[in-house]
Amino acid sequence: MNSGVREVCKRCTVIGGSGFLGRHLVEKLLERGYIVSVFDILQGFELPGVTFHVGDLCDRQALLPALQGASVVFHCASPSPASDDRALFHRVNVEGTRTVLQACREAGVQRLVLTSSASVVFEGTDIKNASEDLPYARRPIDYYTETKIQQEKLVLEACDPGRGFLTVAIRPHGIFGPRDPQLVPILVDSARRGKMKFIIGFTLNMITLAYSPALLSWRAEGRVRPRELTPSCPRQAYHITNDEPVRFWEFLSRLLVGLGYEAPRYHLPYRLVYGLALLLWLLAVLLRPLLTFRPTFTPMRVALAGTHHYYSCARAKQELGYRPLVSLEEAITQTVRSYPHLRLGA
Ligand SMILES: NC(=O)C1=CN([C@@H]2O[C@H](COP(=O)(O)OP(=O)(O)OC[C@H]3O[C@@H](n4cnc5c(N)ncnc54)[C@H](OP(=O)(O)O)[C@@H]3O)[C@@H](O)[C@H]2O)C=CC1
Ligand SMILES: CC(C)CCC[C@@H](C)[C@H]1CC[C@H]2C3=C(CC[C@]12C)[C@@]1(C)CCC(=O)C[C@@H]1CC3
């Protein structure tokens, strides 16, 4: 292979590369010698060797220059799941993804890796060791999930091995780790406001999570192209988790205690809290023209807190060679260490 060809093979674009997962991915790709372009609505950081393209992914003209010459595109952009702006979710996750697909084809991109979510099958009831064969949620709990389902379908349906355009969706679940803007910050904010004293529902519900650095080391190795991706087997989504189911409340308690806060200990009935969360959500929608407030306990969070939701990543292990690189124990230790500013009293 001459150096020109090798260079083209190693050129990639990370859409949403300024975000939590995207930035970790950019760092791993650089370590592995990729030439990286980032496309994001804002430039979140500066790194030698990274070219930034700032724009909205719904704008094909803005997107195209960022995709030129890339053989693989990682799509990691989405509005925050904490938002309840339905129009925004639809515009970015559905219409925006159509635009990404169109721009990829125009730019001659060969592979598109979507970061979907394991929550595309979650509708508020127990999920135990689910494989990817589980159908999409018929009644998604929130707009985020609703549009992640549509997004994943669009991307997988666009897979066209005959024309040399391969798509794959990875479905992480509850990504955490250094710089995560969601899980640990929401938890600490709730603890600081005295809201983390309660256990919702029963204490034994298990979940799987995905520790970002471990997830990305693997992903950045380019193992995202399924070996079996052939015209007869073109559409693939893969659960990616730490592969160590843990009790939800034990996981949260270890993070909280690690940061100096008390673990939750008083029990509240699941149905009562879920009902209250629905009521609050409705109030927030009705009162929006007059005042804005964001409830901590959203129906989605309460559902996640009170049910089993653990997923099998056997397919990714078998077909993609996926292995979680860090134990859950180590992942929690590293995560706690990375948030000195969120410790009690800091
Ligand atoms: N975090 C988690 O637990 C999980 C996340 N995922 C998925 O992983 C992906 C990455 O998530 P995460 O890193 O946590 O999210 P972040 O919000 O940290 O990153 C997403 C990035 O995309 C940017 N973005 C949003 N809208 C647009 C747009 N219209 N055009 C260009 N860029 C845009 C965001 O900018 P801005 O911040 O300004 O909006 C942000 O920089 C998402 O697709 C998410 O659905 C899946 C499972 C679990
Ligand atoms: C307030 C408490 C009841 C819960 C605090 C912890 C939660 C903030 C997190 C626990 C599981 C997380 C999770 C997500 C966001 C943060 C949690 C609810 C996602 C919804 C993020 C986006 C996804 O694609 C799925 C995630 C599932 C797990």
Quick tags:
binds NADPH dihydro-nicotinamide-adenine-dinucleotide phosphate; binds the ligand CC(C)CCC[C@@H](C)[C@H]1CC[C@H]2C3=C(CC[C@]12C)[C@@]1(C)CCC(=O)C[C@@H]1CC3; two-stranded parallel ribbon; alpha/beta; 346 residues; Rossmann fold; seven-stranded parallel β-sheet; globular; disordered N terminus; single chain
> Which spans have pLDDT < 50 for at least 5 consecutive residues?
1-8, 220-234
Kindly report how far apart the N and C termini lie: 54 Å
Based on DSSP secondary structure assignment, what is the total number of beta strands? 15
* Tally of helical runs: 12
The Cα radius of gyration reads 20 Å
Main beta sheet strand tally, sense and closure: 7 strands, parallel
Protein model, in words:
This protein has 346 residues and is an alpha/beta fold. The chain has a domain of 217 residues: 3-Layer(aba) Sandwich (Rossmann fold), CATH 3.40.50.720. It contains twelve helices and 15 strands. Strands 3-2-1-4-5-7-12 form a seven-stranded parallel sheet, with helices on both faces. The protein has a two-stranded parallel ribbon with strand order 6-15. Helix 4 links the parallel strand 4 and strand 5. The chain is globular. It starts with a helix and ends in a 9-residue tail after the last helix. The N terminus is likely disordered. Bound molecules: NADPH dihydro-nicotinamide-adenine-dinucleotide phosphate and ligand LHIR3OJJ. The site of NADPH dihydro-nicotinamide-adenine-dinucleotide phosphate has 27 residues, from helix 2 and helix 4.
